[in-house]
Amino acid sequence: MVSGGSAIRGSRVGAGPMGEQDHGHHADRIAISYWDALGNETVRYFAANLPDEEIPETIDCPSSGLPAGRDRENPPALAKNEPYKTHLAYVKERRTEEEAEALLQEALDKLRARRGTVAS
């Protein structure tokens, strides 16, 4: 005794009379190779009638996550990873009190020049 779905044995669920030609898989395609800085090659397929302007010069390489370009001899450079900066590193970069006061005075002078005078 068979229980369960109503699909006929050996058929794909949802399969209909449409074939590849109805899905556009028969279109002429061209293969374009992209290389990243590590030498990884990625091949992407584009419609043959697509103008060159619409084919991207660079893509993200799925094998390395780096940008990949169409020129094998000159791939895009490796991304520069900035080291993680702690809060203390940002504090050390802050301006001195004298620089902060000079910036404040400059901003106030610009405001006074725009408005005429500033009530103090």
From TrEMBL:
Keywords: Transcription, Transcription regulation. Residues 1-24, 56-82 are annotated as: Disordered. The keyword Transcription applies. Belongs to the RNA polymerase-binding protein RbpA family. Binds to RNA polymerase (RNAP), stimulating transcription from principal, but not alternative sigma factor promoters. Forms a complex with the RNAP catalytic core and with free principal sigma factors. This is RNA polymerase-binding protein RbpA. It comes from Gryllotalpicola koreensis.
